[in-house]
Specification:
CATH superfamily of the largest domain: Glycogen Phosphorylase B
Strand order of the largest sheet: 3-2-4-5-6-9
Helix content: 25-40%
Number of domains: 2
Distance between the termini: 7 Å
Number of strands: 18
Shape: globular
CATH architecture of the largest domain: 3-Layer(aba) Sandwich
Structural class: alpha/beta
Largest sheet: 6 strands, parallel
CATH class of the largest domain: Alpha Beta
Length: 442
């Protein structure tokens, strides 16, 4: 008997509603967290082109590079950007805007406006995020329960309350929901040619910035494994994946290592430059990459951590913020080496007007706990301890693949979009869900 296959036929809502012209405004071509988030949302929209006539306005994202290469998706994006330019020049308008950026940059572009944000790594959003949402956005989608809860639970006392501010407080008055990223599967990944001397290596994938806490991560690793045959691979950069960035990053890292642990047996490697999705997933699957580590102060979601989890390698991570959506299972059980932390105010140098406010807090991983969890992970992997997080990593990866399957997530994404006030009156979401023609075939 063959494998059971689930076939879904997606019928038009309400027997065929006129497609909505939707302006997709996002850093869709950038190599950044928001770039990946943008491409996820765009793929979800493309899954229902019977409902949406998609126009694209690309945004820059800080100093990050733009993706290169040509494939079907990139060619389609380029063609839609070109069509959008011509349509706007001719005075064309849109029914809906879908804006992927930080909330203080949202604008009232169309009759219906949806904001899609990674949210926040701290415990409090800026007041500008609340006023912008209340003034110009009809529906908010974010990527983790942490981001949603922080947005909903932030309040500011106001001295001259307006009608929409209840009880003299500024708070969010618009609907907000979250949806996680989907997993990805790749067949026949090619093995990366990495010259790693030792069999056990931690992987850290992060932009080298204060939020990612990379310096402490490396320092504590050096102190814990100084005289052992253990390695740490840092896939990172300062801003871009260009040659100048590589030289700067390499020199900074070399100086840091020489000052911190000049006489060391453990190894630290820098992996710098553009990598495709397939190459990154090959990195997680490399036989000498044994575990993933993130001691970041906070994450809206933590995409590299997520990719490591569903790739089946154990994770050492700070036990706070967006990554808990997938590091803790649906029964509330931890599935990672949980590093203890203290919640405290963000560092003064990272305050970002309108985004990261000085009153907000994030997690500070505890040094001793971080070292203990690194050590525990190392010993579990090297001893093949089946009764451990490392021993359960492959099994839990399949659970995450099932739970956050791509097609399921696209379907849920469209459901959230169609729940937007103004759209939900035109699209009968319940009728759409009932119309899904699900058949089981042997």
């Amino acid at each position: 008997m063959g494998n059971s296959r689930r076939i879904s036929s997606l019928a038009p809502i309400g027997g065929g509603v006129m497609r909505k012209k939707i302006l997709f405004r996002a850093p869709v071509l950038t190599r950044s967290g928001y770039g990946e988030q943008s491409r996820y949302a765009l793929r979800a929209l493309r899954s229902r082109e019977d409902l949406f006539d998609i126009y694209i306005q690309p945004l820059k994202w800080g100093q990050t590079s733009w993706i290169s290469g040509k494939d079907e998706e990139r060619e389609w994006i380029d063609s839609r950007i070109e069509s959008t330019i011509g349509y706007i020049q001719q005075g064309g308008t849109f029914d809906v805007s879908f804006q992927v950026t930080i909330p203080n940059e949202w604008e009232q572009i169309a009759p219906i406006n949806i904001g899609y944000t990674a949210g926040i790594e701290t415990n409090r959003v800026a007041h500008e995020w609340l006023t912008k949402a209340n003034e110009v956005i009809d529906n908010i989608i974010t990527i983790s329960s942490h981001s949603k809860d922080v947005y909903k639970n932030t309040h500011y006392d106001v001295t001259n309350p307006q009608n929409e501010w209840e009880n003299g407080q500024l708070s969010l008055q618009k609907p907000i929901e979250f949806i996680n990223y989907p997993t990805k599967r790749f067949d026949n990944l090619a093995e990366l040619d990495l010259d790693l001397e030792y069999d056990f290596n931690f992987l850290v994938a992060a932009q080298i910035s204060p939020r990612k806490n990379v310096n402490n991560t490396i320092k504590w690793f050096l102190e814990e494994f100084k005289d052992e045959e253990v390695g740490l691979v840092l896939k990172g950069n300062l801003a871009k994946n260009c040659h100048m960035d590589r030289e700067h990053t390499f020199n900074d890292l070399r100086t840091f290592l020489e000052n911190t642990a000049p006489d060391r047996k453990c190894k630290v490697y820098l992996l710098h430059g553009d990598m495709t999705d397939e190459e990154m997933h090959s990195l997680y699957k490399h036989p000498k990459i044994s575990a993933f580590m993130s001691l970041a102060h906070g994450e809206g979601f933590g995409l590299p951590i997520f990719e490591a989890v569903y790739s089946g390698i154990p994770v050492v991570a700070t036990g706070w913020s967006g990554q808990l959506d997938y590091l803790i299972d649906e029964e509330g059980r931890e599935q990672f080496y949980n590093v203890n932390f203290d919640l405290n105010h963000i560092q003064p140098q990272v305050v970002w007007d309108g985004v990261l406010i000085k009153e907000s807090m994030w997690a500070y991983p505890r040094e001793q706990s971080a070292k203990e969890k690194m050590r525990q992970c190392y010993e579990d992997v090297t001893s093949n301890n089946e009764d451990s997080y490392a021993g359960n990593a492959d099994h839990y990866a399949e659970i995450i693949h099932e739970r956050l399957d791509q097609e399921k997530m696209y379907e849920r994404f469209i459901e959230l979009i169609l729940s937007t006030p103004g759209l939900k009156d035109e699209f009968d979401v319940e009728l759409w869900l009932d119309s899904l023609d699900i058949e089981e075939h042997e």
